[in-house]
From TrEMBL:
Residues of the Dockerin domain: 32-97
GO terms of molecular function: cellulase activity; hydrolase activity, acting on carbon-nitrogen (but not peptide) bonds
Organism: Ruminiclostridium papyrosolvens DSM 2782
InterPro entries found in the cross-reference section: Dockerin_1_rpt, Dockerin_dom, Dockerin_dom_sf, EF_Hand_1_Ca_BS, Glyco_hydro/deAcase_b/a-brl, NODB_dom, Polysacc_deacetylase_ArnD
All copies of domain NodB homology, residue ranges: 105-283
Keyword Nuclease: no
Name this protein carries in UniProt: cellulase
A GO BP annotation: cellulose catabolic process
Gene3D superfamilies reported for this sequence: Dockerin domain, Glycoside hydrolase/deacetylase
Listed EC numbers: 3.2.1.4
Length: 308
């Protein structure tokens, strides 16, 4: 069995005390850009990151930005990444700034009906476990001071936020002004609490029509569903439905928030490793559209479940 503590003895020649004398290396905080080594996401790669990564690998702490810890792009965070961070702090190597190119098959996980301070973190824990991002389609009236910490965690983990209306009212028969207010108020709340502007909209109950495409200046998405709003569906049944609909360019529609029992987090333990073993990479909706070369066109009346 791999012994992390023994690995550290071979990989590390200095202690955290020695690490405290390392020169701080500022890294610019460009939007949507990974600063490798900046595991606490403060814009600086320094001995604090070094200490945090060691604690994480020993199971004694957490880190804010898992993506930034994967310094060799192998989709795992381990003692090799820790050694790379040490070398960087000693000036022996440089660490990249930016996002590694994504090739091969790509899919996007999306989660509806949050945020929730209890249920959303259960999904985030699974995403962190497998080092994958997602897009959270949020209900505006749930975005407030009480859920601010969850929203911050979503953004710092490399995931993104989309718009799922203000109150989850079916909108096909609503007036233009009512539709616009629902969506615009939700966008304003997302901007206030996340510092990001949503690019995507998912209609409540997937109900579209009327003046929605005129009133909503966002790209519409649906997705492969798995009946995870039905309490009786098991984790395996949910996973089977997603896997059956998986293909390159797929959007998966799941829920971080539903009444209990809600085994969607457990379904992710089946879905993510299975698709990764088949060569799929999980990305946000923004990255899926970018990789597939599909322009964001809110006025074209299209609703996307698969991207070509």
């Amino acid at each position: 069995m791999f012994n992390l503590k023994k690995a550290f003895k071979g990989l590390l020649a200095v202690s955290l005390v020695a690490a405290s004398i390392f020169v701080m290396n500022p890294v610019s905080k460009a939007a949507d850009t990974i600063k490798y080594g900046d595991v606490n996401n403060d814009g600086v790669v320094d001995s604090i990151d070094y200490a945090a990564l060691k604690a994480y690998l020993l199971g004694k702490g957490t880190i804010t930005n898992l993506a930034a810890a994967d310094t060799n792009f192998d989709k795992t965070v381990d003692a090799i990444d820790y050694a790379n961070l040490k070398k960087f702090l000693l000036g022996a190597i440089t660490l990249p700034v930016g996002n590694p190119p994504i090739t091969g098959k790509v899919v996007a996980l999306t989660f509806d009906d949050g945020p929730d301070v209890t249920l959303t973190p259960k999904v985030l824990d699974k995403l962190d476990k497998y080092h994958v991002p997602a897009t959270f389609m949020m209900i505006g009236q749930k975005i407030n001071d009480s859920t601010a910490s969850v929203i911050k965690r979503i953004i710092t983990s490399g995931s993104e936020i989309g718009n799922h209306s203000w109150a989850y009212d079916s909108m096909g028969g609503m007036s233009y002004s009512a539709i616009k207010k629902s969506v615009d108020d939700t966008t304003a709340a997302i901007i206030k609490y996340s510092g990001t502007t949503p690019k995507f909209f998912r209609a409540p109950n997937l109900n579209t029509g009327g003046s929605m495409f005129d009133a909503i200046d966002l790209t519409f998405v649906q997705g492969v569903t798995c009946n995870d709003w039905v309490q009786s569906t098991t984790a395996q049944q949910r996973a089977d439905a997603i896997l059956a609909g998986a293909r390159d360019g797929a959007i998966f529609l799941m829920h971080d928030v539903q009444p209990l029992p809600h085994p969607t987090p457990e379904a992710l333990d089946i879905i993510i490793p299975k698709l990764q073993s088949q060569g799929y990479t999980f990305v946000t909706l923004s990255d899926l559209f970018k990789i597939k070369g599909v322009a964001l066109s809110p006025t074209d009346s299209k609703i996307y479940t698969y991207l070509p």
